[in-house]
Amino acid sequence: MPKIPSSVARLRHAVRRGLEDLPRGSVVAVACSGGPDSLALADALAFVGPRRGWTTALATVDHGLQEGSDARAADVVDWAKETGFDHARTLRVEPGRFAGGPEASARDARYEALNRQAAEWGTAAVLLGHTRDDQAETVLLGLARGSGPRGLAGMRARRGVYRRPILDLPRETTHDYCLQRGLDPWIDPHNSDSRFKRSALREAMDTLTAVLGHGLVANLARTAGQVAADVDFTDALAAERYAEMGSPSELPAADLEGLPEALRTRLERLWLLDQGLSAAGLTHRHLAAVDALVVDWSGQGPAALPGGLVVARKKGLLTCSRP
Ligand SMILES: Nc1ncnc2c1ncn2[C@@H]1O[C@H](COP(=O)(O)OP(=O)(O)OP(=O)(O)O)[C@@H](O)[C@H]1O
């Protein structure tokens, strides 16, 4: 019988593979909430890091939103120091300064603090403990929100300085890892509280799995990977074509009209970003209004975009202006 790798071996292997390009002397940080996923990941980094000659660092963010969050953060930092991390810090943030609901503002505050700390440490990578189950939830949420291929592509294994080395591993691997290694993860009380959408989604996923079968999580995650590959390919094609067009200040709508939708809408998006619009501010509605000026423009008035920008069509060209 072939030996089945233990969860400990699988996680360490995932960390080695996900970071195999990092040379000796790199600073590698992990964002650790103290929960099972990021605690298992941190423990695996503490094992792999010194063997690869990396400096290891751990940051835990205290959002100050729950009673005892400071004690939890202190426990994580103490554990990291005992475990041999070269650096370990609590980052205190004020989500109240950020717009959006409680989860979104906590996330924005967390990334701002992590970005700053990563720059201070000079890190080559910051690891996040998202698992295959998180990926499946992201895809489901993307479907529900109608977020299009970009949303359905899910989270990326690598984005900027951030890496998700355990994105292909099921959540049960991290729980099993913690058991095998005798780690005592912190269990977020909100995970069992349906007030928060993400927690409710976890429950919904269990129900869907019972109805649709045990392959659901893996299939959703695999779909994300396939969509991501297609999105990346088409994005690259569009970027190439846009460069060939010479990044025009006025978009030649008449030339775009006959192009396939996937290419046409990407060219429109690239042009809008060039006009100073932020990717986050551009909704499906804005993009559809601009596309309508390209393909179905008779009788179309100008499209109103965020920041008071207006896109209008004149003599076959789209212009973007602030009246
Ligand atoms: N308070 C925090 N401090 C540091 N990193 C965090 C914090 N909260 C989340 N993260 C990072 O973001 C990742 C995703 O967080 P999220 O809360 O969505 O996932 P989770 O599945 O509950 O993870 P975990 O079991 O690690 O808490 C975590 O694995 C961790 O790397």
Automatic annotation (TrEMBL):
<keyword id="KW-0819">tRNA processing</keyword>
<keyword id="KW-0547">Nucleotide-binding</keyword>
<dbReference type="Pfam" id="PF09179">
    <property type="entry name" value="TilS"/>
</dbReference>
<feature type="domain" description="tRNA(Ile)-lysidine/2-thiocytidine synthase N-terminal">
    <location>
        <begin position="28"/>
        <end position="203"/>
    </location>
</feature>
<keyword id="KW-0963">Cytoplasm</keyword>
<dbReference type="InterPro" id="IPR012795">
    <property type="entry name" value="tRNA_Ile_lys_synt_N"/>
</dbReference>
<comment type="similarity">
    <text>Belongs to the tRNA(Ile)-lysidine synthase family.</text>
</comment>
<feature type="binding site">
    <location>
        <begin position="33"/>
        <end position="38"/>
    </location>
    <ligand>
        <name>ATP</name>
    </ligand>
</feature>
<dbReference type="Pfam" id="PF01171">
    <property type="entry name" value="ATP_bind_3"/>
</dbReference>
<protein>
    <recommendedName>
        <fullName>tRNA(Ile)-lysidine synthase</fullName>
        <ecNumber>6.3.4.19</ecNumber>
    </recommendedName>
</protein>
<dbReference type="InterPro" id="IPR015262">
    <property type="entry name" value="tRNA_Ile_lys_synt_subst-bd"/>
</dbReference>
<feature type="domain" description="tRNA(Ile)-lysidine synthase substrate-binding">
    <location>
        <begin position="251"/>
        <end position="316"/>
    </location>
</feature>
<keyword id="KW-0067">ATP-binding</keyword>
<dbReference type="InterPro" id="IPR012094">
    <property type="entry name" value="tRNA_Ile_lys_synt"/>
</dbReference>
<dbReference type="GO" id="GO:0032267">
    <property type="term" value="F:tRNA(Ile)-lysidine synthase activity"/>
</dbReference>
<dbReference type="InterPro" id="IPR011063">
    <property type="entry name" value="TilS/TtcA_N"/>
</dbReference>
<keyword id="KW-0436">Ligase</keyword>
<comment type="function">
    <text>Ligates lysine onto the cytidine present at position 34 of the AUA codon-specific tRNA(Ile) that contains the anticodon CAU, in an ATP-dependent manner. Cytidine is converted to lysidine, thus changing the amino acid specificity of the tRNA from methionine to isoleucine.</text>
</comment>
<dbReference type="InterPro" id="IPR014729">
    <property type="entry name" value="Rossmann-like_a/b/a_fold"/>
</dbReference>
